[in-house]
Every structure is written in structure tokens, then in C-alpha cells.
């Protein structure tokens, strides 16, 4: 079966293609449109069809729209509120449902040759759930989905058997929502809701949970797998911040309090679920599953032995989940997801054409891994563009900014390059076989950067750039079998420095989606103080860096 999944309802419009039970391609529309999270000043523009992402997915498999057996849309208007129902204060509720009902017609226009009868609706939270339990390399598993909202709920808890059948055990009705609560405090602290929640998570490490008592009164579990989130007047707790306004200690305290209460609620939900299923394993999805601090506490203190999180756990991942769910319903056996590198990739010839057209000096490296390691060891910042782009919000060694972790100043340098707040951490990329020597806690390996780990005391002074204020790091482990080029670069860096860790953050600047195609890479390199661009087998040097390289070469005896 050939099934295209589509998310085009809330934010992060995306498409994913599953062929004969295997994920072939997946991409967010923002990587093509360059509008982060698919947002624009017009609210309903967030419902745009991911036309470019859909087109890419089909091209990746050399398919035409008429070849598709199904198009799975990750929102079911039959489950949505009906006229007169007021589940939230969302003024666009009716238009959202109308849009979804007309999706088959929109899709027929966007995908010329598609039979609208092949469009099928998959409930939002079922799509989230399927993106995890069908993609995970597990058998029987418990499933927990927590996000802002779906059609009329904000949460799903259930059990999936090894045959891919889902039993829903609990679902929390709106307006009660842990995700919307976190969005509200994100906006109150001067950030963009449905976009900057990770900034609140980072800020929380700088504060004390001094408002936890008040939040426990308003936000509590109900004992039946659900919860209550009563309205909270955030202004009573701390003054509201405008965008870009400096935060004070009490704002960090509020972030810490909300983060702590979220973790407590997730633990209660997990214990309730485990008592019903007795499963060893848990899979997570929904936007809240991108909260790596909460994931780590859930693993450390919760009842499940293993936790697996789908790397595009937010709304973009519902495109993948809808496709997997429909493929399974049509009889396909689903293969576990083996990589997040599901986006666009380019041949060496394609890349050289882009470089030649840009009219800049470049060279083909004899060994790009060694050359990048040399630049990093000399304290250069490297833009790394290799292979297919990642699906989801994390840079996992395909579209990354790299730096030397031994210098504390590199945290500030990278935040300056990206134009973002200095309280935000950057992540370490580490060889999988070396991770246990340096980091504690959390799952190992940790391929998708969705958990935090402690940094061993003896290593904190050696890699200060990647140690957050609370002594943790959000690591990505690199397996040489899955990522041979990245592993060779890390090994080359260790030979030069004795450290098998490199700083890894996403290749973008503030407010822009992650770099995806060669034009994006060249624009980012041209506008940011980066020393070297490693794009496929080619390297492009900043003029000053090129001069230093020539001087060094001249000093080497013939």
C-alpha cells in the first residue's frame, strides 16, 4: 500500500509517505515555505495544506497522486465540536472543522489526479499515538499522548499490542489541557505560544518552584486517568513580560513551578496507566513529549522500564502517525522507524551546481570529517550540511552548527550566531560507545535528543559549553553503523583533543526554520559568523578562516 499522511489543522503542517509499511519520506512544510511552524499573521493560515512537503514525499518514491491507495488526514471532523458546543475559547473552532470537512476537495486540487474518495480521516490523538506505537521498535506497549488539544480532547492513554491494535483507556476532554497550560505560561513569559515552550523548559532550571503550591490546587489528577486544569490568573503570580523584555528571578520561578507541576502530573498519569496495563514499555507522543526534562523524570521515577519517544512528537508527527495508522488498517505490516533522516537530500553533483551558481570559492575535501574535526579543534564554528534533513525539531547531525565543547565561551558564541537568548543551552553529540563514561541517567543510547542526562563531575570542566546550569545535558548519541560520517568526525575530533563530544545545535538563526536545502545553507553561512561550511564533500571557508588555513599550510615543511 502507498499511503500519504497529512497534517494541516493546527500548526506544523507536514506530510509523510509510507510504502508497504515502511516510512519512505517525511517533512514539515516550514522547511520549504521558510515560515516557522507554518505560522503567519493570519490565524487560519496555520491550516495550510503542506503542498510542497506532499510533492516532495511523492517525488521521493517516484509516485503520482493517482498511485496512492489512501491519503490520511490527521484530524477527524466527526469528532470535533458541533455548532453550539464551547470546548475552548478558540474563536476559529467552527472554521477549523469546516476546513477539515472540505479537506478531500482541497487535496484533490493540490494533488491533481487524486480520487477524493481515498481520503480518510484519522483522529488527532490516534494519529499522535500511532506515530509512536507503530513506529517504535517494541511489541506490546502503553501509549501516552499529551498535547494542547485535538478535536475535543487534550490527552490519550492506552495500550497497543504487538499486532498494532490500540485500546484507548482514557482521554481528557477539553478545556482541561496540560499543553494549553504550558502554552499560556509561555506567552505570559514573553515568548510565542505553540512555538517557544522549550524556552520555558530551559528557563525553569534558573528558578525555584516557589508557586508549586498554588499550581497544585489548580492543576490535579482526577484518579481515573484524567486531570483538571482550572483557570489560572498568571498576573497574580508574576507580572506579564512583553516580547524581548528582560526576565526577573520570579519569572524563572514561575517557569520552574509549571515545569515541576507538569512532571508531577505526567508521573501520576503514567502510574495510573501502568496499573491498568502492566506493560514494561511506554511510548510518548504529542507536543508535551518534546519536553526532555519531563521525559527523563518519567523514566527515572515512573513505573515503566523503557520509554520511546517519536522524534517528531509534535503536530508534524501526526502526518506520520495518520499514514502509519491507515497503512496498518489497510493490511500492511509496519516496519519500525529506523531514522529521522527522512527529508530532502542532494547528490554531490547537485551540491556542486549550487556552489558554482553562488559564485563563491569552495573546494572538494579529501576527507570532510577530518577537515571539520581540525576546524573544530582550532575553535572554529562549523555549519554541517550532510545527507537527508531530519524530520522533527531536533538537529541530529544532518543540519547542524558544530563547535568545540571545551570552551565555555562557545555557548555564548553559538547563541550569538543564532541570535537567541543566552540562558538557552546547546547540546552535546557523543559517540554512543563513549556516552556512559561521560553522562549519567536517562536512556543509552539516546538517538533523538529527547531526554536529559547528568554530566559526570569529572567531565563538567572538560566540556563546559554543553553543561546546563542544572548540571545536565540533552545528549544525542551517535552510532557508527547508522551515522558513519558523523561518527568519523567525532572520532577525528577525539584524536585531536581527547574529547569524544562536539557541540551540536540546529543550523538556523532565530525565528527561522532549520536549514533544509543548499540555498538555505549558503544564506545562513553568508549571514552568520560561521568559519566553515561543510556541505556534502565540499568545504566553504570564511575569508579569514581561509587565510589562516593558507598560512598554516605554508608553515608545513615540504
Report on the structure:
This protein is of the alpha/beta class and 558 residues long. It has three domains: 2-135 and 316-329, Nucleotidyltransferase, domain 5, CATH 3.30.420.40; 141-308, Nucleotidyltransferase, domain 5, CATH 3.30.420.40; 348-555, Carbamoyltransferase, C-terminal domain (DHBP synthase, Alpha-Beta Complex), CATH 3.90.870.20. Helices cover 36% and strands 18% of the residues. The protein has 20 helices and 23 strands. The strands form five sheets. It has an eight-stranded mixed beta sheet, with helices on both faces. A five-stranded mixed beta sheet has the order 3-2-1-4-5, with helices on both faces. The protein has a five-stranded mixed beta sheet with strand order 8-7-6-11-12, with helices on both faces. Helix 7 crosses helix 10 (249-277), helix 10 (249-277) crosses helix 11 and helix 14 (368-377) packs parallel to helix 18 (484-497). The longest helix has 29 residues, at 249-277. Mean pLDDT is 93; it is low at 41-45.
Amino acid at each position: 500500500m502507498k499511503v500519504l499522511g497529512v497534517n494541516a489543522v493546527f500548526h506544523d503542517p507536514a506530510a509523510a509517505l509510507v510504502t508497504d509499511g515502511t516510512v519512505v519520506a517525511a517533512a514539515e512544510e516550514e522547511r520549504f515555505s521558510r515560515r516557522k511552524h507554518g505560522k503567519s499573521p493570519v490565524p487560519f493560515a496555520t491550516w495550510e495544506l503542506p503542498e510542497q512537503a506532499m510533492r516532495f514525499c511523492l517525488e521521493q518514491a517516484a509516485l503520482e497522486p493517482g498511485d496512492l491507495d489512501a491519503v490520511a488526514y490527521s484530524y477527524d471532523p466527526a469528532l470535533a465540536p458541533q455548532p453550539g458546543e464551547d470546548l475552548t475559547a478558540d474563536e476559529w473552532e467552527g472554521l477549523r472543522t469546516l476546513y477539515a470537512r472540505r479537506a478531500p476537495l482541497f487535496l484533490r486540487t493540490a494533488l491533481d489526479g487524486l480520487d477524493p474518495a481515498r481520503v480518510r480521516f484519522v483522529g488527532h490523538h490516534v494519529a499522535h499515538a500511532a506515530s509512536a506505537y507503530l513506529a517504535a521498535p517494541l511489541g506490546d506497549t502503553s501509549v501516552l499522548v499529551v498535547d494542547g488539544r485535538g478535536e475535543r480532547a487534550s490527552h490519550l492513554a492506552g495500550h497497543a499490542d504487538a499486532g498494532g491494535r490500540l485500546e484507548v483507556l482514557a482521554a481528557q476532554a477539553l478545556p482541561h489541557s496540560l499543553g494549553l497550560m504550558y502554552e499560556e505560561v509561555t506567552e505570559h513569559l514573553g515568548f510565542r505560544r505553540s512555538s517557544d515552550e522549550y524556552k520555558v523548559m530551559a528557563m525553569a532550571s534558573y528558578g525555584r518552584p516557589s508557586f508549586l503550591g498554588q499550581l497544585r490546587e489548580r492543576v490535579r489528577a482526577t484518579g481515573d486517568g484524567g486531570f483538571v486544569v482550572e483557570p489560572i490568573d498568571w498576573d497574580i503570580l508574576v507580572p506579564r513580560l512583553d516580547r524581548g523584555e528582560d526576565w526577573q528571578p520570579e519569572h524563572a520561578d514561575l517557569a520552574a513551578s509549571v515545569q515541576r507541576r507538569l512532571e508531577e502530573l505526567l508521573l501520576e498519569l503514567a502510574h495510573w496507566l501502568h496499573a491498568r496495563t502492566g506493560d514494561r514499555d511506554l511510548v510518548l507522543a504529542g507536543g508535551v513529549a518534546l519536553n526532555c526534562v519531563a521525559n527523563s523524570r518519567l523514566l527515572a521515577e515512573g513505573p515503566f522500564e523503557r520509554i520511546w519517544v517519536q522524534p517528531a512528537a509534535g503536530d508534524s508527527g501526526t502526518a506520520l502517525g495518520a499514514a502509519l495508522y491507515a497503512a496498518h488498517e489497510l493490511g500492511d505490516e509496519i516496519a519500525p522507524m529506523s531514522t529521522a533522516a527522512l527529508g530532502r537530500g542532494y547528490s554531490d553533483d547537485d551540491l556542486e551546481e549550487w556552489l558554482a551558481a553562488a559564485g563563491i570559492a569552495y573546494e572538494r575535501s579529501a576527507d570532510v570529517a577530518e577537515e571539520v574535526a581540525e576546524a573544530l579543534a582550532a575553535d572554529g564554528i562549523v555549519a554541517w550540511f550532510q545527507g537527508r534533513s531530519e524530520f522533527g525539531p531536533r538537529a541530529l547531525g544532518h543540519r547542524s552548527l558544530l563547535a568545540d565543547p571545551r570552551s565555555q565561551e562557545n555557548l555564548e558564541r553559538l547563541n550569538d550566531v543564532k541570535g537567541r537568548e543566552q540562558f538557552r543551552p546547546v547540546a552535546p553529540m557523543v559517540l554512543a560507545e563513549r556516552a556512559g563514561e561521560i553522562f549519567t541517567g536517562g536512556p543509552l543510547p539516546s538517538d533523538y535528543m529527547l531526554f536529559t542526562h547528568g554530566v559526570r563531575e569529572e567531565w563538567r570542566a572538560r566540556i563546559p559549553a554543553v553543561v546546563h546550569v542544572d548540571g545536565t545535558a540533552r545528549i544525542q548519541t551517535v552510532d557508527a553503523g547508522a551515522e558513519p560520517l558523523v561518527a568519523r568526525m567525532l572520532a577525528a575530533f577525539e584524536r585531536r583533543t581527547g574529547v569524544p563530544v562536539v557541540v551540536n545545535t540546529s543550523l538556523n538563526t532565530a525565528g527561522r526554520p532549520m536549514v533544509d536545502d543548499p540555498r538555505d545553507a549558503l544564506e545562513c553561512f553568508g549571514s552568520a559568523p560561521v568559519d566553515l561550511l561543510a556541505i556534502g564533500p565540499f568545504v566553504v571557508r570564511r575569508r579569514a578562516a581561509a587565510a589562516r588555513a593558507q598560512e598554516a599550510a605554508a608553515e608545513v615543511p615540504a
